[in-house]
């Protein structure tokens, strides 16, 4: 072989080896750098959560240095801005729970019925149309829901119950329930769809109707997912802000009448966070005390949802 040909082959081999070494070096660098970048990305949520909790705890601690915790937790009058000032959180808590219970009474039956229809009755073509339409409700801004409650639902309620005010808990609760229907429906339908087809076929072979299969086979088998969706919807309703701010009013009444104006914990936080309250005052600290109460409630509900999902989970 001519010397020139040998030299060309040698240069080609050298170039190939350099390219190979460069690729190996680049892969080695990426293998070292990417875990670090992914760890930093994962740390953002953890650090954010830690920052939120630390801020809540520190500000709440300062608030309870001025206001006894017993008066805050068990007081029945909430008037932190108007003398004589009172910091009993029970009126806000009762208003929040009233809105949430009304919302769950609307969302859980309708959401579960929608999930049963989509899972057991609807053809595939219909399911592909209806499920995205339901999930679009979750993307509507909550302020739009608030004005929908104020301009449409409240007049309907007033036409039936003449004692209802412009701002009332029933209107806000119904619309919050409409807002969380997609959460109950989508999660419950996913849980029902994961039930093996063999269970349905076995029930049909024994002579069960489609409705009996849905209620006695599919729903019990998907019970953990259904309950988890209900608890998560409950948590979502507790934390709702704009609907209750617009439609429920700002009167912290400790009442059981859903036709009255009430105030929730989130609505109070919005009211005081408008910038009129000086930093460092007791009124300012009450925002964090109420926020901490709301945080603990939703935190415990999420733990409950995870516990129920693990305890009643069926594996096939």
Give a brief outline of the structure.
The chain has 316 residues and is mostly helical.
Give a description of the structure.
- This protein has 316 residues and is mainly α.
- It folds into 2 domains: 3-66; 74-311, MetI-like (MetI-like fold).
- The protein has helices at residues 3-66, 69-74, 90-121, 124-136, 142-160, 169-193, 197-205, 210-221, 223-238, 242-247, 265-272, 282-311, and strands at residues 78-79, 86-87.
- Strand 1 (78-79) and strand 2 form a beta hairpin.
- Helix 3 runs parallel beside helix 6 (169-193), helix 7 packs antiparallel against helix 8 and helix 11 (265-272) packs antiparallel against helix 12.
Topology, please?
Blueprint: H1 3-66, H2 69-74, E1 78-79, E2 86-87, H3 90-121, H4 124-136, H5 142-160, H6 169-193, H7 197-205, H8 210-221, H9 223-238, H10 242-247, H11 265-272, H12 282-311
Antiparallel strand pairs: 1-2
Helix pairs in contact: 1-12, 3-6, 3-9, 4-6, 5-6, 6-9, 7-8, 9-12, 11-12
Query: Order of strands side by side in the largest beta sheet?
Result: 1-2
Low-pLDDT stretches: 3-7
SS field, number of helical segments: 12
Number of folding domains? 2
Distance between the termini: 69 Å
The CATH superfamily name of the largest domain is: MetI-like
The residue fraction in helices comes out at over 70%
The profile of the biggest β sheet is:
2 strands, antiparallel
